[in-house]
Amino acid sequence: MTSHAVSDEALNIIFRDARTQNKWQNKPVSHAHLMAIYDLMRWGPTSANASPARIVFLASHAAKERLKPYLAPLNREKTMGASAVAILGMDLDFAQKLPHLFPNNPKMKDIFTANEELNRVTAFRNASLQGGYFIVAARALGLDCGPMSGFDNDGVDKEFFAGTNIKSNFVCAIGYGDPAGVFSRNPRLSFDEACEIL
Amino acid sequence: MTSHAVSDEALNIIFRDARTQNKWQNKPVSHAHLMAIYDLMRWGPTSANASPARIVFLASHAAKERLKPYLAPLNREKTMGASAVAILGMDLDFAQKLPHLFPNNPKMKDIFTANEELNRVTAFRNASLQGGYFIVAARALGLDCGPMSGFDNDGVDKEFFAGTNIKSNFVCAIGYGDPAGVFSRNPRLSFDEACEIL
Questions:
Q1: Per the count of CB atoms within 10 A, which of A18, A64, A174, B77 is most buried?
Q2: Distance from the B158 Cα atom to the nearest Cα atom in chain A, whole angstroms
Q3: What ipTM was reported for this prediction?
Q4: Which residue from A minimizes the CA distance to B90?
Q5: Is this prediction's pTM over 0.90?
Q6: Does residue B87 register a pLDDT over 90?
Protein backbone atom coordinates (compact mmCIF):
# COMPACT_ATOMS: atom_id res chain seq x y z
CA MET A 1 0.00 0.00 0.00
CA THR A 2 1.11 3.59 -0.50
CA SER A 3 2.06 5.93 2.31
CA HIS A 4 -1.23 7.67 1.67
CA ALA A 5 -3.36 4.79 2.95
CA VAL A 6 -5.00 4.70 6.36
CA SER A 7 -3.85 1.85 8.62
CA ASP A 8 -5.77 -1.38 8.82
CA GLU A 9 -6.34 -0.75 12.53
CA ALA A 10 -8.00 2.59 11.75
CA LEU A 11 -10.23 0.92 9.15
CA ASN A 12 -11.28 -1.59 11.82
CA ILE A 13 -12.20 1.23 14.19
CA ILE A 14 -14.29 3.25 11.76
CA PHE A 15 -15.79 0.41 9.70
CA ARG A 16 -15.09 -3.25 10.32
CA ASP A 17 -15.24 -3.57 14.09
CA ALA A 18 -17.53 -0.63 14.90
CA ARG A 19 -20.93 -1.71 16.16
CA THR A 20 -24.22 0.03 16.89
CA GLN A 21 -24.58 0.27 20.65
CA ASN A 22 -27.66 -0.48 22.74
CA LYS A 23 -26.18 -0.23 26.24
CA TRP A 24 -23.77 2.36 27.59
CA GLN A 25 -21.01 2.69 30.14
CA ASN A 26 -21.54 5.35 32.78
CA LYS A 27 -18.67 7.46 31.45
CA PRO A 28 -19.07 11.10 30.47
CA VAL A 29 -18.22 12.65 27.09
CA SER A 30 -16.96 16.23 27.37
CA HIS A 31 -18.37 19.14 25.40
CA ALA A 32 -14.93 19.50 23.79
CA HIS A 33 -15.18 15.92 22.54
CA LEU A 34 -18.63 16.58 21.01
CA MET A 35 -17.29 19.71 19.34
CA ALA A 36 -14.39 17.70 17.93
CA ILE A 37 -16.88 15.47 16.07
CA TYR A 38 -18.28 18.49 14.25
CA ASP A 39 -14.82 19.92 13.66
CA LEU A 40 -13.94 16.78 11.66
CA MET A 41 -17.22 16.03 9.90
CA ARG A 42 -17.66 19.55 8.56
CA TRP A 43 -14.82 19.00 6.07
CA GLY A 44 -16.74 16.28 4.23
CA PRO A 45 -18.00 17.33 0.79
CA THR A 46 -21.56 18.50 0.10
CA SER A 47 -23.29 19.87 -3.02
CA ALA A 48 -22.08 23.44 -3.59
CA ASN A 49 -20.58 23.22 -0.08
CA ALA A 50 -24.15 23.73 1.15
CA SER A 51 -23.52 21.95 4.46
CA PRO A 52 -27.22 21.68 5.41
CA ALA A 53 -26.75 19.53 8.54
CA ARG A 54 -27.58 21.12 11.89
CA ILE A 55 -26.95 19.33 15.16
CA VAL A 56 -28.34 19.68 18.65
CA PHE A 57 -26.26 17.78 21.18
CA LEU A 58 -28.20 16.77 24.28
CA ALA A 59 -25.52 16.47 26.93
CA SER A 60 -27.48 17.19 30.11
CA HIS A 61 -30.01 14.89 31.74
CA ALA A 62 -32.66 17.61 31.45
CA ALA A 63 -32.10 17.95 27.69
CA LYS A 64 -32.29 14.19 27.14
CA GLU A 65 -35.56 14.11 29.12
CA ARG A 66 -37.04 16.59 26.62
CA LEU A 67 -36.33 14.11 23.81
CA LYS A 68 -37.56 11.00 25.62
CA PRO A 69 -41.33 11.23 24.93
CA TYR A 70 -40.73 11.48 21.17
CA LEU A 71 -38.60 8.33 20.91
CA ALA A 72 -40.15 5.02 19.87
CA PRO A 73 -40.81 3.12 23.12
CA LEU A 74 -38.14 0.50 22.32
CA ASN A 75 -35.53 3.25 21.86
CA ARG A 76 -36.22 5.16 25.10
CA GLU A 77 -34.30 3.35 27.80
CA LYS A 78 -31.18 2.70 25.75
CA THR A 79 -31.05 6.29 24.52
CA MET A 80 -31.41 7.80 27.99
CA GLY A 81 -28.43 5.70 29.11
CA ALA A 82 -26.05 7.30 26.60
CA SER A 83 -23.66 10.05 27.71
CA ALA A 84 -25.01 12.34 25.02
CA VAL A 85 -27.54 12.23 22.20
CA ALA A 86 -27.22 14.15 18.95
CA ILE A 87 -30.28 15.22 16.98
CA LEU A 88 -29.12 15.58 13.39
CA GLY A 89 -31.33 17.88 11.38
CA MET A 90 -31.35 19.50 7.95
CA ASP A 91 -31.86 23.21 7.44
CA LEU A 92 -34.31 23.80 4.59
CA ASP A 93 -33.07 27.40 4.65
CA PHE A 94 -29.50 26.27 3.94
CA ALA A 95 -29.39 28.41 0.78
CA GLN A 96 -29.32 31.58 2.90
CA LYS A 97 -25.74 30.71 3.85
CA LEU A 98 -24.54 29.97 0.29
CA PRO A 99 -23.19 33.48 -0.39
CA HIS A 100 -20.75 32.76 2.46
CA LEU A 101 -20.19 29.03 1.86
CA PHE A 102 -20.00 29.10 -1.95
CA PRO A 103 -18.74 32.54 -3.01
CA ASN A 104 -17.67 31.03 -6.38
CA ASN A 105 -21.21 31.45 -7.73
CA PRO A 106 -23.31 34.23 -6.18
CA LYS A 107 -26.41 33.00 -8.05
CA MET A 108 -26.35 29.55 -6.41
CA LYS A 109 -28.63 30.72 -3.61
CA ASP A 110 -31.37 31.64 -6.11
CA ILE A 111 -31.20 28.26 -7.83
CA PHE A 112 -32.33 26.63 -4.59
CA THR A 113 -34.78 29.25 -3.37
CA ALA A 114 -36.54 29.14 -6.76
CA ASN A 115 -36.99 25.35 -6.77
CA GLU A 116 -38.60 23.88 -3.67
CA GLU A 117 -38.18 20.24 -4.73
CA LEU A 118 -34.48 20.67 -5.59
CA ASN A 119 -34.04 22.51 -2.28
CA ARG A 120 -35.69 19.72 -0.27
CA VAL A 121 -33.86 16.89 -2.03
CA THR A 122 -30.51 18.69 -1.72
CA ALA A 123 -31.03 19.30 1.99
CA PHE A 124 -32.02 15.69 2.66
CA ARG A 125 -29.30 14.07 0.53
CA ASN A 126 -26.50 16.23 1.84
CA ALA A 127 -27.55 16.34 5.49
CA SER A 128 -27.66 12.53 5.34
CA LEU A 129 -24.22 12.38 3.70
CA GLN A 130 -23.07 14.55 6.59
CA GLY A 131 -24.74 12.06 8.92
CA GLY A 132 -22.39 9.43 7.50
CA TYR A 133 -19.43 11.73 8.12
CA PHE A 134 -20.71 12.33 11.67
CA ILE A 135 -20.79 8.62 12.53
CA VAL A 136 -17.34 8.01 11.07
CA ALA A 137 -15.91 11.08 12.83
CA ALA A 138 -17.34 10.05 16.21
CA ARG A 139 -15.89 6.57 15.86
CA ALA A 140 -12.55 7.93 14.70
CA LEU A 141 -12.46 10.00 17.89
CA GLY A 142 -12.89 6.91 20.03
CA LEU A 143 -16.62 7.21 20.63
CA ASP A 144 -19.40 4.72 19.96
CA CYS A 145 -22.65 5.51 18.18
CA GLY A 146 -26.24 4.35 18.39
CA PRO A 147 -28.00 5.90 15.37
CA MET A 148 -31.79 5.56 15.03
CA SER A 149 -34.66 6.95 13.04
CA GLY A 150 -37.49 5.55 15.18
CA PHE A 151 -38.91 8.74 16.69
CA ASP A 152 -41.64 11.32 16.20
CA ASN A 153 -40.02 13.78 13.78
CA ASP A 154 -42.76 16.41 14.04
CA GLY A 155 -42.65 16.31 17.83
CA VAL A 156 -38.87 16.65 17.89
CA ASP A 157 -39.03 19.52 15.40
CA LYS A 158 -41.50 21.42 17.58
CA GLU A 159 -39.50 20.73 20.75
CA PHE A 160 -36.01 21.55 19.42
CA PHE A 161 -36.32 23.43 16.12
CA ALA A 162 -39.32 25.74 16.70
CA GLY A 163 -39.09 29.03 14.82
CA THR A 164 -36.63 27.63 12.27
CA ASN A 165 -36.89 25.70 9.02
CA ILE A 166 -34.73 22.88 10.40
CA LYS A 167 -36.25 19.39 10.21
CA SER A 168 -34.97 16.41 12.19
CA ASN A 169 -33.31 13.68 10.15
CA PHE A 170 -32.06 11.08 12.61
CA VAL A 171 -30.92 10.75 16.19
CA CYS A 172 -27.59 9.32 17.33
CA ALA A 173 -26.73 8.28 20.87
CA ILE A 174 -23.06 8.88 21.68
CA GLY A 175 -20.78 7.56 24.39
CA TYR A 176 -18.80 4.52 25.39
CA GLY A 177 -20.75 1.39 24.60
CA ASP A 178 -21.12 -1.60 26.87
CA PRO A 179 -20.24 -4.66 24.76
CA ALA A 180 -22.89 -6.63 26.67
CA GLY A 181 -25.57 -4.69 24.78
CA VAL A 182 -24.30 -5.35 21.26
CA PHE A 183 -26.43 -7.67 19.13
CA SER A 184 -24.89 -10.40 17.04
CA ARG A 185 -23.80 -8.93 13.73
CA ASN A 186 -26.20 -9.14 10.81
CA PRO A 187 -24.92 -9.94 7.32
CA ARG A 188 -24.22 -7.38 4.63
CA LEU A 189 -24.92 -7.71 0.92
CA SER A 190 -22.09 -9.20 -1.11
CA PHE A 191 -20.43 -7.09 -3.78
CA ASP A 192 -22.40 -8.86 -6.50
CA GLU A 193 -25.70 -8.28 -4.72
CA ALA A 194 -25.14 -4.53 -4.35
CA CYS A 195 -22.70 -3.53 -7.10
CA GLU A 196 -21.55 -4.13 -10.62
CA ILE A 197 -18.57 -3.01 -12.66
CA LEU A 198 -19.10 -1.97 -16.26
CA MET B 1 -5.91 9.94 23.53
CA THR B 2 -6.70 6.29 24.10
CA SER B 3 -5.31 3.43 22.05
CA HIS B 4 -8.73 3.29 20.43
CA ALA B 5 -8.32 6.58 18.55
CA VAL B 6 -7.41 6.89 14.88
CA SER B 7 -4.16 8.74 14.14
CA ASP B 8 -4.14 12.40 13.28
CA GLU B 9 -2.61 11.55 9.91
CA ALA B 10 -5.53 9.28 9.10
CA LEU B 11 -7.99 12.02 10.08
CA ASN B 12 -6.18 14.35 7.69
CA ILE B 13 -6.55 11.82 4.87
CA ILE B 14 -10.25 11.15 5.32
CA PHE B 15 -11.42 14.59 6.46
CA ARG B 16 -9.11 17.57 6.87
CA ASP B 17 -6.87 17.41 3.81
CA ALA B 18 -9.17 15.53 1.43
CA ARG B 19 -10.44 17.68 -1.42
CA THR B 20 -13.01 17.28 -4.16
CA GLN B 21 -11.15 16.69 -7.42
CA ASN B 22 -11.81 18.30 -10.80
CA LYS B 23 -8.82 17.03 -12.75
CA TRP B 24 -7.35 13.56 -12.76
CA GLN B 25 -4.02 11.85 -13.22
CA ASN B 26 -3.88 9.27 -15.99
CA LYS B 27 -3.46 6.41 -13.54
CA PRO B 28 -5.74 3.39 -13.48
CA VAL B 29 -7.74 2.09 -10.51
CA SER B 30 -8.08 -1.70 -10.45
CA HIS B 31 -11.38 -3.55 -10.12
CA ALA B 32 -10.04 -4.99 -6.85
CA HIS B 33 -9.54 -1.47 -5.53
CA LEU B 34 -13.14 -0.51 -6.42
CA MET B 35 -14.41 -3.67 -4.72
CA ALA B 36 -12.38 -2.78 -1.62
CA ILE B 37 -14.37 0.48 -1.29
CA TYR B 38 -17.60 -1.48 -1.07
CA ASP B 39 -16.05 -4.05 1.25
CA LEU B 40 -15.38 -1.28 3.78
CA MET B 41 -18.44 0.93 3.36
CA ARG B 42 -20.92 -1.91 3.68
CA TRP B 43 -20.16 -2.19 7.42
CA GLY B 44 -21.52 1.28 8.13
CA PRO B 45 -24.84 1.28 10.00
CA THR B 46 -28.23 1.70 8.29
CA SER B 47 -31.81 1.55 9.59
CA ALA B 48 -32.69 -2.09 10.26
CA ASN B 49 -29.51 -2.95 8.38
CA ALA B 50 -31.51 -2.18 5.23
CA SER B 51 -28.41 -1.24 3.19
CA PRO B 52 -30.37 0.32 0.31
CA ALA B 53 -27.36 1.67 -1.63
CA ARG B 54 -26.61 0.09 -4.99
CA ILE B 55 -23.54 1.03 -7.01
CA VAL B 56 -22.61 0.80 -10.66
CA PHE B 57 -18.90 1.37 -11.19
CA LEU B 58 -18.07 2.63 -14.67
CA ALA B 59 -14.50 1.49 -15.18
CA SER B 60 -14.31 1.19 -18.96
CA HIS B 61 -14.23 4.04 -21.43
CA ALA B 62 -17.36 2.67 -23.11
CA ALA B 63 -19.30 2.63 -19.84
CA LYS B 64 -18.29 6.20 -18.99
CA GLU B 65 -19.40 7.29 -22.48
CA ARG B 66 -22.89 5.95 -21.69
CA LEU B 67 -23.06 8.31 -18.70
CA LYS B 68 -21.66 11.37 -20.44
CA PRO B 69 -24.81 12.74 -22.14
CA TYR B 70 -26.69 12.78 -18.83
CA LEU B 71 -24.11 14.84 -16.94
CA ALA B 72 -24.52 18.59 -16.57
CA PRO B 73 -22.31 20.15 -19.29
CA LEU B 74 -19.88 21.59 -16.74
CA ASN B 75 -19.39 18.13 -15.20
CA ARG B 76 -18.71 16.23 -18.45
CA GLU B 77 -15.08 16.75 -19.23
CA LYS B 78 -13.81 16.40 -15.68
CA THR B 79 -15.84 13.24 -15.11
CA MET B 80 -14.65 11.57 -18.31
CA GLY B 81 -11.07 12.13 -17.16
CA ALA B 82 -11.47 10.09 -13.98
CA SER B 83 -10.20 6.51 -13.83
CA ALA B 84 -13.65 5.31 -12.78
CA VAL B 85 -17.04 6.77 -12.02
CA ALA B 86 -19.48 5.35 -9.49
CA ILE B 87 -23.22 5.84 -9.86
CA LEU B 88 -24.64 5.54 -6.37
CA GLY B 89 -28.29 4.58 -6.36
CA MET B 90 -30.95 3.56 -3.85
CA ASP B 91 -33.06 0.47 -4.25
CA LEU B 92 -36.71 1.28 -3.48
CA ASP B 93 -37.21 -2.51 -3.29
CA PHE B 94 -34.65 -2.78 -0.47
CA ALA B 95 -37.26 -4.34 1.82
CA GLN B 96 -37.22 -7.54 -0.25
CA LYS B 97 -33.78 -8.27 1.20
CA LEU B 98 -34.72 -7.60 4.85
CA PRO B 99 -35.54 -11.22 5.72
CA HIS B 100 -31.87 -11.90 4.97
CA LEU B 101 -30.37 -8.64 6.27
CA PHE B 102 -32.49 -8.27 9.42
CA PRO B 103 -33.55 -11.75 10.55
CA ASN B 104 -34.21 -10.36 14.06
CA ASN B 105 -37.66 -9.16 13.02
CA PRO B 106 -39.31 -11.08 10.18
CA LYS B 107 -42.12 -8.48 10.03
CA MET B 108 -39.76 -5.59 9.21
CA LYS B 109 -40.21 -6.14 5.47
CA ASP B 110 -43.97 -5.59 5.75
CA ILE B 111 -43.53 -2.33 7.67
CA PHE B 112 -41.78 -0.84 4.64
CA THR B 113 -43.83 -2.42 1.87
CA ALA B 114 -47.03 -1.18 3.57
CA ASN B 115 -45.86 2.45 3.81
CA GLU B 116 -44.61 4.00 0.59
CA GLU B 117 -43.52 7.28 2.18
CA LEU B 118 -41.56 5.54 4.96
CA ASN B 119 -40.04 3.25 2.34
CA ARG B 120 -38.92 6.17 0.15
CA VAL B 121 -37.55 8.26 3.01
CA THR B 122 -35.71 5.28 4.49
CA ALA B 123 -34.14 4.42 1.12
CA PHE B 124 -33.03 8.01 0.49
CA ARG B 125 -31.73 8.71 4.00
CA ASN B 126 -29.82 5.46 4.32
CA ALA B 127 -28.46 5.28 0.76
CA SER B 128 -27.14 8.82 1.34
CA LEU B 129 -25.60 7.82 4.69
CA GLN B 130 -23.94 5.01 2.77
CA GLY B 131 -22.77 7.63 0.26
CA GLY B 132 -20.92 9.28 3.13
CA TYR B 133 -19.37 5.93 4.06
CA PHE B 134 -18.42 5.43 0.39
CA ILE B 135 -16.51 8.70 0.15
CA VAL B 136 -14.68 8.11 3.43
CA ALA B 137 -13.84 4.52 2.44
CA ALA B 138 -12.48 5.55 -0.95
CA ARG B 139 -10.29 8.21 0.64
CA ALA B 140 -9.13 5.81 3.35
CA LEU B 141 -8.01 3.46 0.57
CA GLY B 142 -5.85 6.17 -0.96
CA LEU B 143 -8.26 7.28 -3.68
CA ASP B 144 -9.64 10.72 -4.44
CA CYS B 145 -13.30 11.52 -5.03
CA GLY B 146 -15.26 13.94 -7.14
CA PRO B 147 -18.89 13.64 -5.97
CA MET B 148 -21.62 15.49 -7.87
CA SER B 149 -25.38 15.61 -8.17
CA GLY B 150 -25.58 17.71 -11.33
CA PHE B 151 -26.96 15.16 -13.80
CA ASP B 152 -30.21 13.95 -15.37
CA ASN B 153 -31.43 11.40 -12.82
CA ASP B 154 -34.25 10.04 -14.97
CA GLY B 155 -31.93 9.59 -17.92
CA VAL B 156 -29.34 7.77 -15.81
CA ASP B 157 -32.03 5.55 -14.31
CA LYS B 158 -33.24 4.52 -17.76
CA GLU B 159 -29.70 3.93 -19.01
CA PHE B 160 -28.33 2.00 -16.02
CA PHE B 161 -31.21 0.84 -13.82
CA ALA B 162 -33.90 -0.16 -16.36
CA GLY B 163 -36.14 -2.99 -15.17
CA THR B 164 -35.34 -2.35 -11.50
CA ASN B 165 -36.67 -0.05 -8.80
CA ILE B 166 -33.23 1.49 -8.25
CA LYS B 167 -33.04 5.29 -8.51
CA SER B 168 -29.82 7.23 -8.95
CA ASN B 169 -28.78 9.34 -5.97
CA PHE B 170 -25.43 10.88 -6.85
CA VAL B 171 -22.38 10.26 -8.99
CA CYS B 172 -18.80 10.10 -7.76
CA ALA B 173 -15.70 10.24 -9.93
CA ILE B 174 -12.86 8.14 -8.51
CA GLY B 175 -9.15 8.09 -9.16
CA TYR B 176 -5.97 9.94 -8.37
CA GLY B 177 -6.57 13.66 -8.46
CA ASP B 178 -4.32 16.21 -10.08
CA PRO B 179 -3.75 18.93 -7.46
CA ALA B 180 -3.73 21.51 -10.28
CA GLY B 181 -7.50 21.05 -10.61
CA VAL B 182 -8.40 21.62 -6.97
CA PHE B 183 -10.25 24.86 -6.21
CA SER B 184 -9.31 27.01 -3.25
CA ARG B 185 -11.06 25.70 -0.19
CA ASN B 186 -14.38 27.23 0.75
CA PRO B 187 -15.21 27.92 4.38
CA ARG B 188 -17.30 25.70 6.62
CA LEU B 189 -19.85 26.76 9.21
CA SER B 190 -18.45 27.29 12.68
CA PHE B 191 -19.67 25.07 15.50
CA ASP B 192 -21.97 27.81 16.76
CA GLU B 193 -23.50 28.33 13.32
CA ALA B 194 -24.34 24.65 12.85
CA CYS B 195 -24.62 23.17 16.34
CA GLU B 196 -25.64 23.75 19.90
CA ILE B 197 -25.15 21.82 23.12
CA LEU B 198 -28.06 21.58 25.57
A1: A174
A2: 16
A3: 0.97
A4: A194
A5: yes
A6: yes
